[in-house]
Amino acid sequence: MNYRDHTHTVTARLVDMIRTGSHGQWVMPWHTRGVGGLLSARNATTGTPYRGSNSIALFLDALDHGYPTSDYATFNQFRKSGAKVRKGERATYVVKWVTPKNRDDTEPADGQSVERRLVPKVYAVFNAHQVDGHELQPDPVIDHCADEWLAAIGADVVYGGDRAYYAPIPDRIYLPHPDQFTDLDALLATSLHEHVHWTGHRPRLDRLDLTKPFGSPEYATEELIAELGAAIAAARLGISTQPRDDHAAYLAHWIELLGEDAKILFRTAAAAQRAVDYLDNLARPEPASSTDEVAA
Fold first, then answer.
1. E-assigned strands of 144-203?
2. In sequence order, which residues have a C-beta less than 8 Å from that of residue 97 and are 6 or more positions away?
């Protein structure tokens, strides 16, 4: 499968899952109770987390097939570990951005630079439950509390009022009083969403375009970044997510957006991953682990 076909397949599957949500309502699939942990996709043989669009693609595949985990590896990775993919099992796909083999490695002249161009390479992978002879890895240990993780980031957060939002001026997150949330997970998931918005301010990742109105593609894209980022972070922190009060207002925009260009999902997933990495580096400033995906 090539990269273009891969983006179309994953995006079409996400849109289909949104449209066939529970109780006849459009929902993002990770809001289904008990499945959020599937977003913590990792390599079944190395334990290395998959990232960005790969975590989304593998989540959708695991959910689609009823796998209890989203541990995946290539045919050869399983073989080298002494395991064997069962005959007739079908692969799913991930993407890794690599340097082309025919890249000119000539050293640049003094004062010049060489552009490091990356290209997407698609790999076939299998779930650990499609394999014989593989010892399943234990679930990752959550070694930090979500509320402590958020507090360590150091964003200016004010409680009160009746809605949650991030205000670029004065660079502050506003959240309703904790008593207004149904439970602690709902409060934390909402805070994660607003913290992802917070990363987009100019002193940080410089992603926000404050000139675009609600309903514009740019506005919808930023909300999708916050939605994906909050879901990825929630899975990493071991908390469940649920639709926000304003969730339904964005779903039609997102379906339209994804229908216009399948690669938008991959670009927004990459931006969401960068936002989560930024927050994680503030909350836990130790070096980040190696990744399977350079960008999405």
1. 157-159, 165-167, 172-175
2. 118, 119, 120, 121, 293, 294, 295
pLDDT digits (tens, 9 = 90+) for 57-73: 999 999 999 999 999 99
Per-residue DSSP letter, 36:
G
**89 DSSP 8-state letter:** P
- Angle at 162 (CA atoms; ends 156, 166), nearest 5 degrees: 35
The secondary structure of the chain in percent helix, strand, coil, rounded to multiples of 5, reads: 45, 10, 45
pTM over 0.85: yes
Yes or no: say if 207 and 35 are a contact pair by the CB < 8 Å rule.
no
CA 167 to chain centre: 23
Pairing mode of beta strands 172-175, 157-159 = parallel
CB 219 within 8 A of CB 212: yes
Are the beta carbons of 98 and 119 closer than 8 angstroms? yes
Determine contact, residues 159/175, Cβ cutoff 8 Å.
Answer: yes
Q: Which tokens sit at 36?
A: 């959020």
Each residue's pLDDT tens digit, 169-221: 999 999 999 999 989 999 999 999 999 999 999 999 999 887 788 778 888 99
